[in-house]
DNA sequence: TTGATTACTTGATCGAATCAAGGATTATCG
DNA sequence: CGATAATCCTTGATTCGATCAAGTAATCAA
C-alpha cells in the first residue's frame, strides 16, 4: 500500500480533489524512490542533505525520533550514499553528508520524481500562481 | 516520521505549495488515526468498509498485496472493529464488514480528521471550485 | 567539580509492505 | 465428467519505518 490515505468521506468536491492529489503524489514519490532501490524515507533524508546536517537537525525537520534517523542514516551509509563524521565543533554530534554517489542518486531521484513537475506543468503560469495562492490560503 | 515526503527540490512555488499541502495532509491523517489508537492503514481500511467488501477488492483499491490486507484486517478484527465472514456466493472469498463499534470508530475518525474540511473551509465557495478545477487539471 | 542537559546510539517491539508458497474453492476445457 | 488451471486468501519469512526506554559520551552550568 503506497500511502494508504484514502479518505473516509469526502464531503465536498474540493476535499475529494485534495485527497486525490495527495494520494497520487505519495504514490509517485514512492515509485520514484523504489526505482532507485530506496525507501521513501531514505530518499527523503538523502534529499535533505544538500548541506551537511546533524542527526538531530534531520530528526527535527522530519518530525521524528532521533533513533529513527540513526536507523535510516545507517542504511544510507551502508549503501555508500552518505557519510557520518564527528562534528569537530561538538563532539557529541555527528554531521551527515552525501557522498558523490549520494549526490548522483539524489539528482537522479529529483529527475525521476516527475509528478509534481508534470502536474504543475499542466497549468499555465497564471494558473500556477492561482493554485499556489489557493493552497497557501487553505493551509491557513 | 509522519510521512516523509519532504521534497528534494521544489523548483517552483506551486510545487512547493503542493508539497506542503501533501505533507500537512498526511501528518493530519496520521494524527487523527493515532488519536483513536489506529494506524493510518487501519483507519484507511476501516473507512473503505461502508459496504462489505472482499479482501481482494480492498487490496486492489489500496494497490497493495492481498497478504497485506490479511494482516490489517486481522488486527482490526482483533480490535472488534470488523468481521470477516465467508462469502456465501464464493466460498474462497471472505467478506469484511464493520461492526457497530467499527462504525462508531470510523465516524469518530471522520469527525476528528478535520484537516481537509478546515483547509477547504478557509476558501470561499468560488475559490473551492477554482481549487478543484486546478487540482483536477494538474492531475491530468 | 558536580550535576544536568544535549546528541546520538542501542535494543526491543510493533506495524506495514512484499514475496514465496500453499490450501481451498471455483472455472475451464478436453 | 474429470483433470488442470485460475482465483481467493492465508501463512511464514524478511525488510524497513516508527517509537520507546535506556544508555554512553560530551558539553554546559552552578
Polypeptide structure, described:
The structure is a homodimer of 140-residue chains. Chain A has 140 residues and is mainly α. Chain A is 61% helix and 9% strand. Chain A has 7 helices and 3 strands. A 3-stranded antiparallel sheet of chain A has the order 1-3-2. In chain A, a hairpin with a 7-residue loop joins strand 2 (82-86) and strand 3 (94-98). In chain A, helix 2 packs across helix 4 (66-78) and helix 3 crosses helix 4. The model of chain A is unreliable at 1-6 (pLDDT under 50). At the A-B interface, helix 1, helix 2, helix 5, helix 6 and helix 7 of A face helix 1, helix 2, helix 5, helix 6 and helix 7 of B. Chain A binds a DNA duplex (30 and 30 nucleotides) through residues 1, 4, 39-42, 54-56, 59, 64-72, 74-75, 87, 90-94.
Itemize the secondary structure elements and their pairings.
The structure is a homodimer of 140-residue chains.
Chain A: H1 13-34, H2 40-47, E1 53-54, H3 55-62, H4 66-78, E2 82-86, E3 94-98, H5 100-112, H6 115-121, H7 125-139
Antiparallel strand pairs in A: 1-3, 2-3
Chain A binds a DNA duplex (30 and 30 nucleotides) through helix 2, helix 3 and helix 4.
Oligomer: homodimer
Distance between the termini of chain A: 30 Å
Low-confidence stretches of chain A: 1-6
Order of helices and strands of chain A: HHEHHEEHHH
Instruction: Determine Rg of chain A (CA atoms, Å).
Output: 18 Å
Give me the count of strands of chain A.
Answer: 3
Structural class of chain A: mainly alpha
Shape of chain A: elongated
Amino acid at each position: 500500500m503506497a500511502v494508504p490515505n484514502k479518505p473516509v468521506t469526502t464531503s465536498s468536491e474540493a476535499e475529494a480533489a485534495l485527497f486525490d492529489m495527495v494520494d497520487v503524489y505519495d504514490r509517485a514519490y514512492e515509485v520514484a524512490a523504489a526505482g532507485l532501490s530506496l525507501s521513501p524515507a531514505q530518499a527523503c533524508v538523502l534529499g535533505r542533505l544538500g548541506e551537511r546536517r546533524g542527526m538531530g537537525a534531520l530528526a527535527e525537520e522530519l518530525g521524528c525520533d532521533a533513533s529513527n534517523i540513526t536507523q535510516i542514516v545507517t542504511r544510507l551509509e551502508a549503501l555508500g550514499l552518505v557519510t557520518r563524521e564527528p562534528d569537530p565543533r561538538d563532539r557529541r554530534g555527528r554531521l551527515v553528508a552525501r557522498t558523490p554517489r549520494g549526490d548522483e542518486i539524489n539528482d537522479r531521484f529529483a529527475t525521476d520524481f516527475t509528478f509534481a513537475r508534470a502536474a504543475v506543468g499542466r497549468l499555465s503560469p497564471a494558473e500556477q500562481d492561482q493554485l499556489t495562492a489557493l493552497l497557501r490560503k487553505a493551509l491557513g
